[in-house]
Design brief:
This protein is mainly alpha-helical and 537 residues long. It has two domains: 399 residues, no CATH class; 117 residues, no CATH class. The chain contains 24 helices and five strands. It has a five-stranded mixed sheet with strand order 2-1-3-5-4.
Length: 537
C-alpha cells in the first residue's frame, strides 16, 4: 500500500464524496429495510435472540451496564448449576445498552429499534471503509467498488442489521483502521488516539477483534524500532486501551464465576487433523458463497492478477513509502494472527458463518483495497467514464445477488420465526385467561430459541430447549408457576418426551400456545388428545 499525497478529510473534501456515499447508503437500505422489523429468526436465531434479550434486559434492570441480563434464569447452554439469576457474563454490551436507551426514547421495544441502530452503525463503518480506501487508492471508483463488495457480501448483508455484536465490532474496526491510516500518513497524534479508542471498543464488544488490536500494536512496535515514531507519542493510547479491555474482561470473569453465562468464552480447537479436514470441507461446501458471492470471487481474482502484472512487469515497489514502514507489514501480521484465531476456534466455523466476519473477512477486504491501490488510476476522461460504468455494472449485479441471498438465507431456521409469531400473540391470551400477572413465572418447554418466547412476551422466566430427560427433570425442580408449550411443538416432540408431555394438564390456550401444570399421572396418550382437550375440563 503506497503513501498518497496529503488528503485532509475536511468538510470541503468530504463534500466530494457525497454521491458515492449516497449510493452506498441507498443500496444498503434497500437490501435491509424490508427486514427491519423481523424478530430474531432464521440463521443463528439462538444467538440473535440472546442478544436481543440483552437489550431488553437493560430495560428491566434500569440500564445497569455492569450487570447485563437476559430474560431467562437458567443458563442451560453450559449447565444448570449457576445460582438463579438473570445476570449473564458477556462481552461489553455497549450496543445493547444504547439500543435500550433508544427503546426508552421511542417507547417501542420492537425489533426495528435494535436492527435500525445496528444498520446505522454498519453504515458508519462502510463510510469509514470508503474513506480509508480513498486515502489509499486516490480513486472514488475503486473505493466504491471495495465498499460495495463488502456491503453486498451475503453474510455481511445479513448481519449488517441483525442482533449480533459482530456488525458493531466490524464498524468500529473500520473506523479504527481509517484513523490509523490517517495517523500513519500524516503523523498527527490525534488520529492515533481515536484509532486505538475505536479498536479497543471493537475488541471489548467482540473479543475476537482483539487480533486486529494486537496486529496494530505489533506494527506500531516495528515502527518504534525503526524510529519512525517515538515511544512518548505512542505508549499512552495502547496502554490505556489494554487497561480498559483488561478491566472489562476481569469484570466479565467475575460475572461468569458468580452468575454463569449464556455466551461462549473458551477456545474450541479441533483435536485431530482428520476432524480439521472434515470441518474445512463442510465450511467450503456450506458457506463459501455466503462469505463472498461467486462473482466477487472472480472479481477478486481479476484485481489480484492485474496487481501482480503491475508489480512484476512495471517493476513497482509496493514497499516504497517514503521511508515509512509499509502497511503491507500490518496486513501480514494481521493475517498471521487471524490464522491462529481460526485454528483456535475452528470447531465454530462449520455452523457459524459470522466467525468468518469476526476473523478473516476484514483483512481480506483490506488486501483487496491494497491490490486496488497498485492498479493505475485512469487518467483520460473517457477511461474514467468507462471504468465507472464497469464498476456500476458490477455493483448492480452484486446488489441483485445480495437481494437474492437475503431471501435464500431466510429459508433456513424458519421454526424460530414461527416461535416468535406464536409468542407474540401469547401476551393477550395470558391476560384474557387470567395469567397475565408479571409476578407469575413461566417455563417454556422445547421452544427454540430459549430467550425468544420471553422477548416476544416481554417477561422473565425459565426455558428448556432440549428433550434430554435428565435436563428436563432438573428443570422441573425450578421455582416456576406454569408451563408454556406450543401446541405444534407438543405434537412434534410427543414421542421424544414421553416422560413429561403426557403429564401436562392444559389450563388455557389460543390454538398456538397452551398454559399447563404438571400432573402426577398420564393425562394424554396421544398428542391429539392434548390439542383437542377442553381447557375447562
Amino acid at each position: 500500500m503506497r503513501e498518497k499525497h496529503t488528503l485532509k478529510l475536511s468538510m470541503g473534501k468530504l463534500k466530494q464524496h457525497i454521491l458515492p456515499l449516497l449510493v452506498i447508503t441507498a443500496i444498503v437500505l434497500a437490501v435491509n429495510v424490508r427486514h427491519l422489523n423481523e424478530p430474531p429468526a432464521y440463521i443463528h436465531a439462538w444467538a440473535q435472540a440472546d442478544n436481543y434479550s440483552l437489550a431488553l434486559g437493560f430495560l428491566h434492570n434500569g440500564g445497569d451496564l455492569f450487570h447485563p441480563q437476559t430474560l431467562i434464569y437458567n443458563k442451560q447452554q453450559f449447565s444448570f448449576e449457576e445460582p438463579e439469576s438473570l445476570v449473564t457474563a458477556c462481552d461489553l454490551p455497549l450496543h445493547h445498552w444504547l439500543v435500550a436507551g433508544l427503546m426508552r426514547v421511542t417507547g417501542s421495544r420492537q425489533p426495528w429499534v435494535f436492527r435500525g441502530l445496528t444498520l446505522l452503525v454498519s453504515l458508519l463503518g462502510l463510510w469509514s471503509l470508503f474513506l480509508m480506501a480513498f486515502v489509499l487508492t486516490r480513486s472514488r471508483t475503486k473505493s466504491l467498488l471495495a465498499t460495495m463488495l463488502v456491503a453486498t457480501a451475503p453474510s455481511y448483508a445479513y448481519y449488517a442489521a441483525s442482533f449480533l455484536p459482530t456488525a458493531s465490532a466490524l464498524a468500529l474496526s473500520m473506523g479504527g483502521l481509517l484513523f490509523y491510516v490517517l495517523y500513519w500518513r500524516d503523523a498527527q497524534k490525534w488520529p492515533l488516539y481515536v484509532s486505538i479508542l475505536l479498536l479497543t471498543l471493537a475488541m471489548m464488544v467482540r473479543t475476537s477483534f482483539a487480533v486486529l488490536w494486537v496486529a496494530v500494536a505489533c506494527f506500531q512496535l516495528l515502527r518504534l524500532f525503526r524510529k519512525e515514531v517515538s515511544l512518548r507519542s505512542s505508549w499512552l493510547p495502547f496502554v490505556a486501551g489494554a487497561i480498559l479491555f483488561a478491566a472489562w474482561w476481569l469484570w466479565s470473569q467475575h460475572l461468569r464465576q458468580q452468575y454463569g453465562s449464556l455466551f461462549l468464552s473458551s477456545l474450541l480447537p479441533v483435536h485431530s487433523k482428520e476432524d480439521a479436514l472434515v470441518i474445512l470441507q463442510n465450511v467450503h461446501d456450506r458457506w463459501r458463497f455466503h462469505y463472498f458471492q461467486r462473482m466477487q470471487h472472480w472479481l477478486y481474482v481479476a484485481v489480484a492478477v492485474g496487481a501482480l502484472v503491475v508489480v512484476f512487469f512495471k517493476k513497482k515497489d509496493i514497499n516504497k513509502t517514503h521511508n515509512k514502514l509499509s502497511l503491507w507489514w500490518l496486513l501480514l501480521i494481521w493475517f498471521f494472527g487471524e490464522m491462529l484465531f481460526v485454528v483456535a476456534m475452528l470447531s465454530q466455523y462449520m455452523d457459524h458463518d459470522y466467525y468468518f466476519l469476526d476473523s478473516l473477512f476484514l483483512p481480506i477486504v483490506m488486501l483487496l483495497v491494497g491490490l486496488l491501490s497498485l492498479l493505475p488510476n485512469p487518467s483520460p476522461r473517457w477511461s474514467k467514464i468507462l471504468s465507472l460504468a464497469v464498476v456500476l455494472s458490477f455493483i448492480g449485479l452484486m446488489t441483485a445477488e445480495a437481494f437474492h441471498m437475503q431471501e435464500e438465507r431466510r429459508k433456513q431456521g424458519v421454526d424460530a420465526l414461527q416461535t416468535a409469531i406464536r409468542y407474540k400473540h401469547a401476551h393477550k391470551m395470558l391476560e384474557e385467561a387470567g395469567y397475565g400477572s408479571k409476578e407469575l413465572r413461566f417455563m417454556t418447554l422445547f421452544s427454540y430459541p430459549q430467550n425468544l418466547p420471553f422477548a416476544m412476551m416481554d417477561r422473565e422466566g425459565y426455558a428448556v430447549m432440549w428433550t434430554n430427560p435428565e435436563l428436563v427433570a432438573h428443570a422441573l425442580t425450578f421455582d416456576f408457576d406454569y408451563i408454556l408449550v406450543e401446541d405444534e411443538v407438543y405434537s412434534k416432540e410427543f414421542e421424544e418426551a414421553p416422560y413429561v408431555l403426557p403429564y401436562l394438564r392444559r389450563l388455557a390456550g389460543n390454538g398456538e400456545i397452551s398454559v399447563c401444570t404438571l400432573s402426577d399421572s398420564v393425562l394424554h396418550h396421544t398428542a391429539e388428545d392434548f390439542c383437542q382437550c377442553s381447557v375447562n375440563e
